[in-house]
Each structure stands twice: as structure tokens, then as C-alpha cells.
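Review form for a predicted model. The reviewer records the input and the model, then writes brief findings.
Reviewer: anonymous (R2)
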Amino acid sequence: MATTIAQKKAVSSNNATSGGVRKKSGPKFELSEEQRRDIKEAFDLFDTENTGKIDTKELKVAIRALGFEPKKEEIKKMIAEIDKGDGKVSFEDFLDLMTVKMAEKDTKEEIMKAFKLFDDDETGNQLLLKFWQ
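Model under review:
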């Protein structure tokens, strides 16, 4: 029996709140079109049969293709959050994972920029007092 778009959306919606990729509250990070395109391209490299799913074993390589270096434990955690028992990752779940990763990277870069404002001598060593001035 064919799955309707409405059924897919309902399943996707349920997965985001129960056992799927957890959404953080607060402002939602928006991907640029270029980031979205890059994520789709990385996913498609491993979705050779055009099923809309990749093997969980390929998740680490797909993430690395986007410039991230996840640790083994982080990959295990990601898989535990999104694997529905079939050993596959849907594009929607991969997109959610990468949106979170890119938001974390963006936040880290902003913190580093702010820190560098206080790093006058470029040693990387800053007093907490100087930071609060």
C-alpha cells in the first residue's frame, strides 16, 4: 500500500517529538539555501538507490562530507535518536541532525569572535575580570 504525503508528515511530526531528533526550544536556526543544498548533496552521495534513506553505517561519512568530525560516541547517540529499527536514516532526520550541528557550529564561532575581542595580545589567555569589563 502506498504511503500518502499526509501519513509521511504525521510520522515525521511524531518522530520529532517522541524518540526522534529532539527539538530545542528557543529561536530556531534557519539554514541558508546553500547549506540546505550541501546537506542534500552529501545525503544523495549515499542514497544511491534514491530511497530517501541512507544506512546508519554511512552517517559518519556523510557528516564528515559536510566538514564535521563527530566522535564515535556522538554518532552512536545520533543513531539511537533517529534509528527506527531499520538501520536507515531518512533525509528529514539527517537534515534535522545537520541543522543542529550547524547551529552549534555557528554559536561556537560567535563565541570565539567575542572572545577574540578581549584577546588583545593574541595569547588566548584571558582573565575573567577582563572579560566582564
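Findings: The first strand starts at residue 53 and ends at 55.
Further findings: The first helix runs from residue 5 to 17.
Recommendation: see findings above.
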